[in-house]
Every structure is written in C-alpha cells, then in structure tokens.
Design brief:
The complex is a heterodimer. By secondary structure, chain A is mainly α. Helices cover 75% and strands 3% of the residues of chain A. By secondary structure, chain B is an all-alpha fold. In chain B, helix 2 packs across helix 11 and helix 6 crosses helix 7. The chains are: A mainly alpha, B mainly alpha. The interface between A and B is large, with 49 and 51 residues.
Chain lengths: 295, 349
C-alpha cells in the first residue's frame, strides 16, 4: 500500500511536469494551429537557467531562497524566449502551417545541440536545498519533499493559468481567439499580440517545468525536454487541443498509467501502454476527451 | 509545395538513366575527391558512406510520397524503416531464416502493421496526425531502448546475423555488392514512387494535399487514398531498412528515434518536397553532409575558437538545425527551386 501511494504521488508529480509542458503546446496550437516542436527546448532552457542560477549565484547563501530565485529567473527567461521566438521567427511564416512546424523542428534540433555544445551531454545535477531530499509521511508512505513541491507548483500554475484565462482581458482575447480568430479580428482586436503572449506564457510554463524537471529527473541534460515532448503531445491529443482542463486531465491519465504499468508490469511497458491509451481515445473520441471540434 | 511540372518527358528519363549509370560506376573509379571523402571512391569506407546516402535517398523518396505528395505530415516514418532493420535481423537471428526470405517476410509484416497503424492515425488529420505517428514511432523506440523482452539489444543494438547473409553481401571486400543492391533499390523505389504518383491515385493524393474537402465532395473517400499512400511509403521504407542493415552491418537504436524522423523531414525539405528526385537528392546530400559536418566539427579551426563558439559549432546538429531554419525561411522549396531558377535563367538567356 505504501509503495502504491509513493508511485501515485510520483505519478502526480510527473503529471504536473507534463501539464506544464503540454498546456503551452495546447494553447499555442488552439490559438495559432502551430505545433511547436521547439517547446521541449524551452523546457531544457528553463532547466539550464535554473542550474546556472543555483551554481553561480553564491551571494545568496540560503539554498531554499536561491531555488526560488532560480525558479523565477527561469520563468522570466522562458517568457522572454517564447515571445522572441514568435516575434522573430514564427511571425514571418503566418498562414504557412507546415513551414511553421518545420521551422520549429530546425529550431528544436539547433537548441538541443546548442545545450550539448555549451554544457555537455551528461546530466548536470542541480544543487538542491537539503529539505528537498527529506521525506514527509503521507498515509504511512515516505514521500520525498521534492515530489510534493513539484505537485504544488504545478497546481499553482494550473490555477494561475485558469485565472489568467478567465479573469483578465488578455485571457479573454485568447479564449475568444481559440474559438473564432476571425470574429476577434473583425471586432478590431489585435489577435497578433495574443499570439506573442501565448508563446511567451507557454515558454514560461515550459521553463518552470524544466526547473522542476531538473529536480524530478535528478539533473538536466540537453534532450530531457525533447524526450518529454512526445508524452506532452500524447497528453495534448488525449485531452483535446486548445483545452486547458483537457490538458490537465490528459496529463493525469498519461502520467499515472505510465507509472503504474512501469512499476507493476515491466519498465518501458508503461510508455508503450500510454500509446495504446492514445490509440484507444482516438478510436472512441478523435477530438480528444475535452476537445470540441475534430482538429 | 508546388504542382509537379510536366512529368515523364524523354529528357528526364535520359538524365535518370545517365545518373544511375554514373552512380553504378562510382565504386570502380579510383578517383579521390579531396574535402569530401578521405579515401578514393573505390575504398570500402567511401563506398559505404555513399551507399548510406543512397539508402537515405530511397527513404526520402518514400517519405515524399507521404508528405510531399499527399500532404500527410508523419513524424513516425522512422518506424517502418526501423522495423525493416530490426525485423529482418531478428528473423535471421531467432528463426535462422536466410536474408532474402527474412527481408520479404518483414516487408509483408510491415505492410500489415502499417495498415493497422495507418487506420488508427488517419482518424485524425493535420497536426494531430503528426503527433499520433510520432507517438507510435516513439513507443517502438522506447521498446528497443529499454528492451523489457531482452530482444532488441537495447542501446547497443544487434549485430548483423552474418551467417544467414548470402556470400556476396558478406564482409568488407563485398561492400560494393551491397552498394549496387542499394542503388538498384533506390532506382526501384524511384520508379515505383513515380509510377504511383503519376497514376490516377497519385492525382487524388495531390488533390487531397491541396483541398481534402473538395475531394470528398467529388464523391471519393480520402481515407482510402491516404491509407494507400501511408502503406506504400511504409513498405518502401521497410525495404530501405533491410538494406541499411547490410550496409552498417547491424541494427542500431539510433534509427528508431524521433530524431531520425526529423532528420528525414530535413532531407525532404532540403531537397524539395513534392518532387521525387528533389527528395532523393536531399536524402543523398544529407547522408554525406552529416558525415562531413562531423569532420568539420573536429577540425583544428573549430577547436581553436573560444569555447562558447567552438562548443556549438562542434555539434553537427546545431549547424544542421540552423541551416534548416534558414532554408525554411529563405528557400522554402528546397534545393530543387535553386535548380529551377538556374534552368529558368539559362533558358531566358
């Protein structure tokens, strides 16, 4: 029973990471119909930024505080990188959907290789506060605090994203743009600005994910984000493209299935089981669980 | 992507035959091409590299049927290729079949698998199709890498089951024969793909790429045609895999990964999607280029640069990714458009 709880909590942490990576993908796709294959690289960028802050910012002695700063800096870098990516590159190719995807493919390849060239291919382990490694007893199971932290940050991000989309004017425009971009344009609203914003927010969420991922996977390596990207795609398709709640649901389903099967059947089978789950959902509901129209 | 220029003229056939003949003579030439190959063209190392370029060219042609002609952006085309590699080798290793029957059985198996996977994946379209095919390919990749059934040899891969390979394709001395096999396969693939894309079904493929709703309105079922393109492309890729197995003398996990599919995409876009010989050239150039870039990467010039510059430049994929981005931005039709422009200018003058 205690193992079951530990695996469940680990699965929930993984679900949080998937959500952080996939929600940006889903929003970008929902609004702009761009599949961002460089999104995994933004995840990696977050991880490396956090590692750099933890490694170099020796002025701040308290590792806990330093981690908070690392998380914030990574989020800001991700926000900026996402925005710049849209402004400088994606924007040039509006209306050419396949070319946009190809562009992000090239960008993703180049960025991952760039990380490898700058920091090598061995995982860099984040200097973590000691509290992360200590355990909390949950229903008799010993859960590492880092897992709980990841879960907490992911939940906060989910809540923040929902608030942003529901309560702010920018969020309103984005939601309206997902529904019907032409109508929004006809009302004289600058949808293009929302495009940049969505990329920036997506980049920020991915970079937060990367920081937490560096903790979860015990280190950051160049292809870490890109490897997770495949599962993020599955999450997005299962949840329904453009739906934030669907993405959260998809993340839970995928991460828990993966964890349980990997533990109770055989390592590696969980990842395959997830693909079967995807096939199953597509057979029954091609538009995804909470998706509205067939993509 | 553009509509194909008038196909099937006598001149293209002549160029095609000439090019194939030239490539066939290549391993017998004692020529050295400084800067690109280390040894003379007839040295086994060079023949192997050019042979891999030919296999990639065939693979890129098969992918072009799917992506360039039918407009189906698959991110899982590494899967049928990898199945061709691993399937053929496993049949030889485990059931003691000879190479040729093993390759044929694998081909039939891959066709059957691709009918099933295609039917599922084609329930979605556009970008979702890309994601689903990526997921299928990735699950096989993970299966190979983690190897829960102790079958695929994990990251190290499986060495070629040499004792089941015909005498003519064994050993370094016979690498020429494998080269000629690869060349014949490329020619065959090209002819099959050309025949298919110029057939009536091929017309429907292009129509689906341009406007699927209109095809449906005409009373045709796009699904059937898309599935046909998917299965044909998968079968050809599996064949290419079986030959790749001989050329590199083993099955390596690298060909299963998503990176390899993306590389395939780079090949087709580099050459020019929707033009078979463009794809073939893209695959060939890519095969040689990746090798050449890693030579540049380890050269003294790069090593003498400061670390922040030398690090990225010593990564072939970094250079390739940047080139690819520039290509998409400034030369969307691929190398073929350069050629077209050149021909156009020559005609005018």
């Amino acid at each position: 029973m205690t193992t079951f709880i530990l695996i469940t909590v680990t699965g929930l942490g993984l679900a949080g990471l998937y959500f952080l990576l996939a929600s940006g993908l889903s929003l970008i796709f929902g609004l702009m119909h761009v599949l961002n294959l460089a999104h995994g690289a933004l995840f990696g960028l977050g991880g490396y930024t956090a590692w750099l802050v933890m490694d170099r910012l020796s002025v701040v002695h308290d590792p806990g505080l330093r981690f908070v700063i690392a998380l914030l800096v990574a989020a800001a870098v991700g926000f900026g990188a996402g925005g710049v990516m849209e402004r400088a590159l994606i924007r040039r190719l509006y209306g050419r959907l396949v070319d946009q995807v190809l562009l992000t493919v090239g960008l993703g390849l180049a960025l991952v290789a760039l990380f490898g060239g700058l920091w090598g291919y061995d995982p860099l382990v984040l200097d973590q506060p000691r509290w992360f490694g200590e355990v909390t007893h949950v229903l008799g199971a010993r859960i590492p605090n880092s897992r709980l932290l990841i879960l907490l940050v992911a939940l906060a991000s989910f809540g923040g994203l929902l608030l942003f989309l529901d309560r702010t004017r920018h969020g309103l425009v984005i939601r309206a743009g997902v529904e019907n971009p032409n109508m929004v344009r006809a009302l004289g609203i600058d949808v293009e600005r929302s495009f940049t914003l969505v990329f920036a927010v997506g980049g920020m969420l991915a970079a937060i994910g990367g920081t937490l991922g560096a903790v979860f996977f015990n280190g950051i390596s160049p292809a870490l984000g890109t490897n997770q990207l495949v599962f993020a795609f599955i999450v997005v398709v299962i949840g329904g493209m453009g739906s934030v709640a669907g993405t959260a649901l998809g993340a839970l389903l995928v991460a828990l299935t993966q964890q349980y099967v990997n533990f109770y059947a055989a390592t590696g089978l969980g990842d395959v089981a997830v693909v079967f789950l995807l096939a199953l959902v597509l057979m029954i509901r091609p538009q995804g669980l909470l998706g509205k129209v067939a993509p | 992507m553009r509509l194909r220029a008038n196909a099937g003229t006598d001149r293209t056939v002549a160029v095609f035959v000439g090019l194939a003949g030239l490539l066939a003579l290549l391993p017998t030439l004692d020529l050295t091409i400084p800067g690109i190959f280390n040894g003379p063209l007839s040295s086994p190392g060079t023949i192997q590299v050019v042979g891999i370029g030919l296999v990639f060219a065939a693979l890129a042609v098969s992918y072009d049927v799917l992506f360039g002609y039918t407009g189906l952006l698959s991110f899982g085309h590494a899967l049928p290729f990898a199945l061709g590699v691993y399937g053929t080798n496993l049949l030889m290793l485990r059931s003691g079949m000879d190479y040729l029957p093993a390759a044929v059985v694998t081909l039939v198996g891959v066709v059957a698998v691709s009918v099933v996977l295609g039917s599922v994946a084609l329930r979605t379209g556009g970008i979702a199709f890309a994601m689903v095919t990526l997921a299928f390919a990735e699950s096989f990749s993970i299966l190979v890498l983690t190897d829960p059934f102790r079958l695929f040899g994990g990251e190290e891969g499986l060495p070629l089951a040499v004792e089941h390979v015909p005498e003519a394709f064994r050993g370094v001395a016979n690498v020429r024969n494998i080269y000629w096999l690869a060349l014949s396969f490329l020619v065959g693939t090209f002819l099959v793909a050309r025949r298919a894309t110029t057939s009536r079904a091929g017309r429907v493929w292009e129509a689906i790429r341009e406007n699927e709703a209109r095809v449906e309105l005409l009373g045709l079922r796009p699904f059937v045609f898309k599935l046909a393109a998917f299965v044909l492309a998968s079968g050809l890729a599996a064949g290419a895999g079986a030959i790749h197995l001989l050329l590199v003398r083993g099955a390596t996990a690298g060909v299963t990964t998503a990176d390899f599919t993306l590389a395939l995409l780079v090949m087709v876009v580099l050459g020019g999607p929707g033009r078979l010989w463009g794809a073939a050239i893209g695959g060939f150039v890519y095969g040689i280029l990746t090798l050449r870039l890693s030579v540049v990467a380890t050269s003294h010039v790069v090593a003498s640069l400061p670390h922040w510059l030398a690090g990225p430049l010593s990564e072939p994929l970094f250079v390739l990714g940047v080139v690819f981005v520039l290509l998409v931005l400034f030369l969307p039709g691929g190398l073929v458009t350069l050629f077209d422009r050149l021909v156009g200018r020559l005609r005018r003058s």
